[in-house]
Write a structure and sequence with these properties.
alpha/beta; 3-stranded mixed β-sheet
Length: 193
Amino acid sequence: KEKASSTPYIVVGYDVRTHSQMLFDGLISGINLSNCKVLNIGLVATGVNYFASFQEFFINNEKIKPAASIMITGSHNAKKYNGFKITINNEPFFGDELLALYEEIAKNPNIQIPDNFDFFEIDAKNLYIDFMVKQFSHLKDFKTPFVVDCGNGVANTVLCEILDKLNLNYKGIHLNPDGEFPSHHPDPTNEIN
């Protein structure tokens, strides 16, 4: 019989930046030290991370509802930047709460966090793809051509599979994730990009 877990589980995903893996390793070591558990969803877009935080998973015959999510991403900023997008109980964690966390961390500058890369690997991508295909099924076989530019970010970890399943008439460019962003700066709000 399944039972609900009392252990806090945290969804963690990361983007393609060259330093995301280093941040992931440090972050999950800290999460493990705090007696929480990590649900690793891997290289994904932020939307997949948020989506995963609303899902239920089964780990060791326990029903798991994530208590929080952390997305390691620099978003649309230059490749040298990175950070965390955090939700707790599916609510954004930012502003004064984030400053309070920073102040708590700053009080403990010498804390030692041993490496602990334990996690449960979760396939959130396929859940997300299936959900999006269902939600946009009314667009299936839509023949108007369009172009998608993934800018060598993580969008194509799910995007083209969704578009293919909907049988849409698209051309994809800069599809391969590359933390050097060789095609152009990742900011889509800049018209030249």
